[in-house]
Design goal:
With 146 residues, the chain is an all-alpha fold. The chain is built from eight helices and no strands. Helix content is 71%, strand content 0%. Helix 2 packs antiparallel against helix 8 and helix 4 runs antiparallel to helix 6.
Amino acid sequence: SLAALHPASPRHESRAYRSPLFSRRSAVLAPLATLLALPLSAVPASARSYKGDDPLTLRLRQSREELAACGPLLEQRRWDEVRKVTSVLLAAMTFKGYTGESVKSRAAAWAAAGDAARSSSLLSKRTALMRRISALENGVYAAQTN
């Protein structure tokens, strides 16, 4: 009946109340968009000009490229491939692995060498990235299990 379509009708209100504010896709893609929205200017000039070819730096650069390519994987619902990318990045942040160094151990080495400000800056960036990656993984897990 036409009464059900009227905005003041209880049936119309209950249908509007039950609809989600955001779609599942937007909930899954939001952490990735936030992660990729960091401007290059947020990275210190000393870090941008560093042309390090050590294994950790190379691993992090490769992970950044792989993470940037996750948008289409998310849209295609290829959850396992997204989780492979995030797991490699999370490992590089904490565990030394085959590179012999992690972001966490590099910050500790800088602190031990007397560069506490640089170490603190790296650790705060690491923490922010870890939170965003965790949010992305939680979104992927939620989408995968629904």
